[in-house]
């Protein structure tokens, strides 16, 4: 079948407002108006500014009212605990309403913020939906972040409540969340009024009297009493959530997502991009702490009347590299969305795909990859093993949904390995030089999106309009700066080559090297430091820190390096995967004092490099090469 993509994309270009107005008809609105987009509101305009809606109603109630009450809405599959559970749409709505009652009883209401700090358990999704039901703005914090990161988010979002579980479970260890929360509250200037803690058998938490409440017990009581609570209408442009993501400093950026545009974009994507029918089972093997988890574990599958899967496990080791195939087969998953690193991990354990053959994957239709570059070797292995289309697509926390992809629902376009294919309707993607001039095909430059951004994308940063403007809109007036560099070929296919800032991508997780440098610099023995991302076969990139010690420090370097590794783990969290710290005499710099991080990365990755013309002392590069070799990183 010929793809309808070009016709649909051109249709959007000819009439963008008409395009999104039609897409908006898939959503149930409390009220609408003639204004689809107001260019004068906000930083670059606002979508559906005066329309009113409720995201939870669209995810749950309308499916219960219209034919899906008995269909599974959420399947919990937890190989790490051995538990499974299924909630129909009617049951999930009942639980969400009960949780919303608990929030309301604690005085939370429309416009308040709540931080959700939970592992991959159904209560995480229930908490998100309960907030959405009452117009409470949620901010989910990934469990792998340390207390310090949680404290930063508490101070920025100033939540009235923290909704958490007593623990998370990683292979081989149970992580008590409560001490992290208590520590974070102590570190933060803002104090939430209450903590609602879901007690897990693996490690129940000690509760602070008067502040901490047993979420599970209160929710169960509300269910037993048959308590219900109506969805609260909010403006389409009101915030649904804040999701913090790495910026160029240790201060994360609070990406704001609105209600209306978000629903319109996600609903459109389910049929047109992912080619999923309501009633089917869609599985995003990510975490609710990341944007993929927000959009494609929680909101999009439910908006579309699908069954979503909450998977508490890892692609390998829980118990083996066949877990993904077992889940697909057990629950009739038609489409899986994950990060390439998960497939690299599976391939490493089961290179011949022996475990795949143990399971019936006859319902499985497609694999979608995002979060980092999909290397053609991994993609080809997945195609060979699974015999289904493997679709790379590119997006960011900021956009909330795909920028460039291969729209399976419009008819698959030919795949070019290494390219996530073409822009989705809504995105006018261009490549500019550093001065902002358009570049021709096949020329590497800054990838930008012509304003306005489509529905679903961030309208601003939480309480930081100026930072939003400075970070995204200032450098290329009239465009959103993606901070990715790439090329567009003669057929309009985009390839992403690198970030233009200090963000690195570790196992599909986005991390700021600047943030890690800020932590290293706090060590009493460190005079200066530089953190770079070096290539890693499994995780894509790994952080590697170089430190110069203060004059007169004569402690064992190995001890200091261990302390530095511990410091990053303590301040940022295990998710930073910071395991390489190298002491050097000097850092390579330009004559004006700029650290040559790019050249250091090229040396570490064994790439050929040109001696920077402005280098202060070329001999330092040999010192870096030797230091890397001593630490087992040979170039
Ligand atoms: N809570 C607490 N700690 C966590 C955590 C969580 N939710 N998630 C990860 N961590 C810890 C890990 O236990 C690990 O700790 P360690 O240093 O003590 O081993 C550390 O953070 C690094 O985690 P990760 O980078 O995920 O490595 P891993 O070795 O545990 O797993 C993969 C490797 C490839 C299996 C895993 O990264 C993966 O499944 N990646 C998919 C990524 C993904 O879904 N991205 C979302 C975008 S689609
Ligand atoms: P995050 O905000 O965590 O989703 O990370 C977004 C960044 O991850 C992007 O800016 C890219 O650098 C990278 N990324 C995401 N998807 C892809 C992809 N399909 N190909 C290449 N890089 C990607």
Descriptive overview:
By secondary structure, this protein is an alpha/beta fold. The protein folds into two domains: about 5-315 and about 395-485, Rossmann fold (3-Layer(aba) Sandwich), CATH 3.40.50; about 505-630, GMP Synthetase, Chain A, domain 3, CATH 3.30.300. About 30% of the residues lie in helices and about 25% in strands. It has 18 helices and 31 strands. The strands form ten sheets. Strands 5-4-17-16-18-19-20 form a seven-stranded mixed sheet, sandwiched between helices. The chain has a five-stranded parallel sheet with strand order 7-6-8-11-12, sandwiched between helices. It has a four-stranded antiparallel sheet with strand order 23-24-25-26. Strand 19, helix 13 and strand 20 form a beta-alpha-beta unit. Helix 4 crosses helix 5 (about 120-135). The chain is globular. The model has no long low-confidence stretch (mean pLDDT about 95). Coenzyme A binds next to strand 9 and helix 12. Adenosine monophosphate binds near residues 372, 396 and 499.
User: Major sheet: size, sense and barrel closure?
Assistant: 7 strands, mixed
Radius of gyration: 24 Å
CATH class of the largest domain: Alpha Beta
- Mean pLDDT over the full residue set: 96
Bound ligands, each once:
coenzyme A, adenosine monophosphate
Strand content: 15-25%
Helical fraction equals 25-40%
Number of helices: 18
């Amino acid at each position: 079948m010929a793809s309808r993509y070009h016709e649909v994309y051109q249709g959007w270009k000819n009439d963008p407002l008409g395009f999104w107005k039609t897409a908006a008809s898939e959503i149930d609105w409390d009220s609408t108006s003639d204004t689809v987009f107001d260019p004068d509101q906000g930083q670059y305009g606002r979508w559906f500014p005066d329309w009113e809606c409720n995201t939870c109603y669209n995810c749950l109630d309308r499916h219960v009212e219209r034919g899906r009450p008995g269909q599974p809405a959420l399947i919990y599959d937890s190989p790490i605990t051995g538990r499974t559970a299924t909630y129909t749409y009617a049951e999930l709505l009942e639980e969400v309403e009960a949780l919303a009652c608990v929030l309301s009883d604690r005085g939370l209401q429309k416009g308040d913020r709540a931080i959700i700090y939970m592992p991959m358990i159904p209560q995480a999704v229930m908490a998100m939906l309960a907030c959405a039901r009452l117009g409470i703005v949620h901010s989910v914090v990934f469990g792998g972040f340390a207390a310090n990161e949680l404290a930063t988010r508490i101070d920025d979002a100033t939540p009235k409540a923290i909704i958490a579980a007593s623990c998370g479970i990683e292979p081989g260890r149970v992580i008590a969340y409560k001490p992290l929360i208590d520590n974070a509250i102590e570190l933060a200037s803002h104090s939430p009024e209450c903590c609602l803690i879901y007690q897990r058998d693996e490690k129940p938490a000690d509760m602070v009297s008067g502040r901490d409440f047993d979420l599970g017990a209160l929710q169960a009581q509300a269910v037993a009493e048959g308590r219900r609570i109506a969805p609260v209408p909010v403006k389409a442009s009101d915030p649904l959530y804040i999701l913090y993501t790495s910026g160029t400093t240790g201060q994360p950026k609070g990406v704001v997502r609105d209600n209306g545009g978000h629903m319109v974009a996600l609903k459109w994507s389910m049929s047109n991009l992912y080619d999923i029918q309501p009633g089917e089972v869609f599985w995003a093997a990510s975490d609710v702490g990341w944007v993929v988890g927000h959009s494609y574990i929680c909101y999009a599958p439910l908006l579309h009347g699908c069954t979503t899967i909450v998977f508490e496990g890892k692609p390998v080791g829980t118990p083996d590299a066949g877990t993904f195939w077992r889940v697909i087969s057990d629950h009739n998953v038609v489409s899986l969305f994950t990060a390439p690193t998960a497939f690299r991990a599976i391939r490493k354990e089961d290179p011949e795909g022996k475990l795949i053959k143990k399971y019936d994957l006859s319902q499985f239709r497609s694999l979608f990859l995002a979060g980092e570059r999909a290397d053609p070797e991994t993609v080809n292995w997945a195609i060979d093993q699974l015999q289904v289309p493997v679709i790379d697509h590119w997006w960011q926390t900021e956009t909330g949904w795909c920028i460039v992809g291969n729209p399976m629902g419009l008819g698959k376009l030919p795949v070019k390995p290494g390219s996530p294919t073409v822009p989705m309707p809504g995105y006018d993607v261009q490549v500019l030089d550093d001065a902002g001039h358009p570049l021709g095909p096949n020329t590497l430059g800054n990838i930008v999106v012509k304003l306005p951004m489509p529905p679903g994308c961030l309208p601003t940063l939480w309480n930081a309009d100026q930072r939003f403007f400075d970070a995204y809109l200032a450098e290329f007036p009239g465009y959103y700066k993606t901070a990715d560099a790439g090329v567009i070929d003669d057929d309009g296919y985009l390839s992403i080559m690198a970030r233009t800032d200090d963000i690195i991508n570790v196992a599909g997780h986005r991390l700021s090297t600047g943030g890690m440098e800020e932590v290293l610099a706090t060590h009493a023995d460190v005079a200066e430091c530089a953190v770079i991302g070096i290539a890693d076969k499994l995780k894509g990139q790994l952080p590697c820190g170089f430190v110069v010690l203060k004059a007169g420090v004569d402690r064992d370097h190995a001890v200091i390096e261990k302390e530095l590794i511990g410091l990053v783990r303590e301040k940022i969290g295990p998710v930073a995967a910071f395991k390489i710290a190298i002491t050097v005499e000097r850092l390579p710099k330009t004559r004006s004092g700029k650290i040559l991080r790019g050249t250091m990365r090229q040396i570490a990755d064994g790439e050929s490099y040109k001696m920077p013309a402005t280098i202060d002392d070329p001999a330092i590069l040999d010192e870096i090469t030797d230091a890397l070799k001593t630490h087992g990183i040979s170039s």
